[in-house]
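Researcher: Structure for this, please.
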Amino acid sequence: MKRLVFIIGILSLVSCSEDKQEKVTNESSIVANEENEKALKETLTDTEREEQERMKSFTTMSFDKWDHDFGTIKQGSTNKVLFKVSNTGKKPLVITDVSASCGCTTPKKPEYPIAPGKSDVIEVVFLPTSLQSKEQTKKITVQANTEPSMTILTIHAFVETNK
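Model: Predicted structure, token format:
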């Protein structure tokens, strides 16, 4: 009796695993036909058209510097730098956001779009707190209608503690 139950159990396991293998094989097959290819080509064409429209509003920009070193500064001191940004493209440059990696750094973006061939500034103020000392590096992220849409500027300083 025990042998019969054991044999039936093994047979049921083998038959179940074979069914699963057949289902996986059948479900994973994809048949390419003219209808599928036509739908794929239409989707790709639509996507390409949308991308071209999106690219029409993009421009290019350049900076007078990507990096600024304040040198040695004191805790609690106010340190300001201006990054000159120029529109080197053919469409107005719209800087949508400028953010810093730390609350001790405050960037200010241009208020208006920058015309092609013109420039403006991004002002960055670094105010090291009493918790900051030694080498400090902060990142400023600039988002604009460029490709890529995000650009990173960097500031450095060696912060001396107040005694």
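Researcher: Any notable elements?
Model: Confidence is low (pLDDT under 50) at residues 16-24. The radius of gyration is 30 Å.
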